[in-house]
Amino acid sequence: MAGMIPRTFIDDLLARTDIVDLVDSKVQLKKAGKNYQACCPFHSEKSPSFTVSRDKQFYHCFGCGAHGNAISFIMEYDRLEFVDAIEELAGFNGVEVEREKTNMTPAQQRQAQIVHKQKQDDYELLEQIAKFYLQNLKTHDDSKQVIEYLKNRGLTGEIVKKFSIGYSADSWDGMMSMFGKSTQASSQLVDLGMAIQGDKNRPYDRFRGRVMFPIRDKRGRVIGFGGRVLNDGTPKYLNSPETRIYHKGQELYGLYEARKYCKNLTRLVVVEGYMDVVALAQHGIDYAVASLGTSTTEEQLTTMFRTVKEVICCYDGDKAGRDAAWRAMDNALPLISDGVSLKFVFLPDGEDPDTLVRKQGQQAFEEILDNAKPLSQFIFDHLLSTVDINSLEGKAALVDSFQPYLQKLPDSILKDSIFTELANKFGAGSEQQLAKLNKNQAVKKTSPIKQPKKVTPVRLAIALLLEHPHLVSVLPDLSILDSIELKGVDLLKQLMEQCQQNPNLTSGQIIESWRGTEQGNVLAKLLLWEHHIDSSAAEGVFNDTLEKIINTFVENRTELLLQKARLGQLNSLEKQELQSLINAQS
Known about the structure:
The chain is an alpha+beta fold and 586 residues long.
């Protein structure tokens, strides 16, 4: 890590980025006047309240309040830290991130360098281990046996290469002898879950005698591994534990490969195991992901819905599979909005995606996916099995049982349809419950963005300057405000100085320079203020506003000095000041 990212680089990166193009690459925008609109990607809604301004290089949702510039959008949409978002945006523009010496103390700088270098070393080490396992598959004494196993599973060399599948030798220190030659390296391997601390402080390989599946994050970096035994040993699958770079509830095996190799990625199918993902890809279904041994989490579902609009959960038809499906459904409910869909497939007893696709082929398997059970039907079927619908009590119990799930489901056509279905099929004897349910589901309508509590000249001047930084060039002397003491004037002066140094700044660049500060929050709110002043009139209004600021200060100051004069409290300097103010106003 050479140092902090220079402000000049960040400004240049924002200047290179058209926020409309960036957002449109992830969320389909439609022209709406001079701006662009879409349904907000950060919360569920029926009608679009998410607005992107090309003029301001800024986005804002009038529903949930999310707002920011291109960097903020990347951070929020892809759930990245600031530096990672800068790197992602740099990649979007095809440039390398620049670094500079920092203003941190030497100790702070060393610590930041250590943390950054540690992560980079972790990613590099795991990438090297993945290559080591891949080489084992070619050259180890057991390679023929392993290759034969993979062939028997229907895998070709091409698909093995695509997923970087390798082999960990059935020895205690095959990997450790290669990468754990020093105490520091051994400690790192233990920290990354690749080794287990044994007796006498001697770590040994976690993965032994297994087919190895590297787990990559969205950027393609290896963050962990899954290993499958070649025989009937246990556990059948062994996964990396949670580490400083691997959090299994946030990652999906195969997502990186799906985004990379699937030319038209419109849906994702969630399966249970690594081999299921690879087997489906082998048969042309290259949009499968696995949830890494956990129930499909809200974080994983959020990632999927930001990637595609249709997610199909494919589970075994036994109780465990249906329980896993129910947990996934429950986690997904807050994310379901019009335009996205969650469906479910339950496979026959004794089958998994791997075995079924090998038996029936791509076309038959995709027909099963095409006929997947919709979310609403899955909920109905499950809850119907828990009550006796032949009685009024059972019907009432069914309506009540829907309540906790409907509370989680945002307003949508789907939600309305579920109410209609309940009323049509089970309304008799349960009208009161339905009315109660409707009342409980009532959601307060979101209000448009709050305008400033008081429209003051200072706030208006700041808002105009944020939108039109070049206005500062019409002022002959920025010291015009130096002696003025009014609330907000200090911020206005700082903003004027910033714009004077670079009048070509965009609104998004200005807001970025104040990120993480209290003033930055104030500026963001003022940038979102709809003051209805046309661009052609901005210069005249800005000058008039500055004059009003000066006059307001003069009036307030004169009144204060006059009050002190009546009480006989003026000193000689204040007497001179009062006389000057009175003369200036006469």
